[in-house]
Amino acid sequence: MPKVRVDKRKGSGGGGGVGDAATQAMVFNKDFGQHILKNPLIIQGIVDKAGIRNTDTVLEIGPGTGNMTVKMLECAKKVITCEVDPRMVAELHKRFMGTPLYHKMQMMVGDVIKAELPFFDVCVANMPYQISSPFVFKLLLHRPFFRCAILMFQREFAQRLVAKPGDSLYCRLSVNTQLLSNVSMVMKVGKNNFRPPPKVESSVVRIEVKNPPPAVNFQEWDGLLRLAFTRKNKSLSSCFRTKSVLQMLEKNYRIFCATTMPPIEVPSDFRIKDHVLEVLEENGFAEKRSRTLDIDDFLRLLHCFNKANVHFQ
Questions:
Q1: Which among 113, 129, 181, 277 is most buried, taking Cβ atoms within 10 Å?
Q2: What structural domains and CATH numbers belong to the chain?
Q3: DSSP character string of 179-209
Q4: What is the DSSP letter of 266?
């Protein structure tokens, strides 16, 4: 029987170009969710979709060994990389030091969720999937405004961002993202385009934050959504009947009435449950379910509650 030939060339099967040998040799940290994007066509596609200009500052989250960083350095004024793993930071230094691109790169070391984000025009990220949700909210509320973000996520998470009312994946994340931004799918990315391959498929989305933002108290808006989506398949009247929710709403109601000028006197026979259910009934929301309501419905519901002095802060 003939022997099976084993290809021992460095970087075989990589496709990541420069830095691929480093990727081959490095042991990846599962706690950081490290999966290096190796397909040069996908990398170039993401950079193209970002529409980077030669005057742009780009924020890259999770640069890894720099396969995408090098493409962005070639077309941007500046690339700020944010990396939590010191080994990856060392690889980036080693890869770019002594090259004409090195002076265009600035490195941030640490947890991006805890860090204060710098000014940037475009954000590009192939980040650990476990920080997807907090990072999206951090990005949506970031000021000053940026032009766009091109972000890699686990496919199901990406589908939640663009889900519409009635979809099984429609949730608080969907509503908040679509309230504050225009979000769209860019491309699907199979697991074999990474080293090591993750257990899930991925997708790339584009986010453009709305400027100016909608005129809504976001803290209160998000408080309403948290309650409504706790049991998104139940009627709203069921969601607002629970003891903990009613206690919180009554406390907020009494605080609001006491601090209004002049103060509003709360009747001795006042029951927050009756008050809340009356608001829902009178405005046609009692039997509605959160999974079927769109952004305009939630805005109207919040307005109805606020008119009745029911607040969610």
A1: 181
A2: 20-209 (3.40.50.150), 218-307 (1.10.8.480)
A3: HHEEEEEEEEE-GGGEESPPSS-EEEEEEEE
A4: P
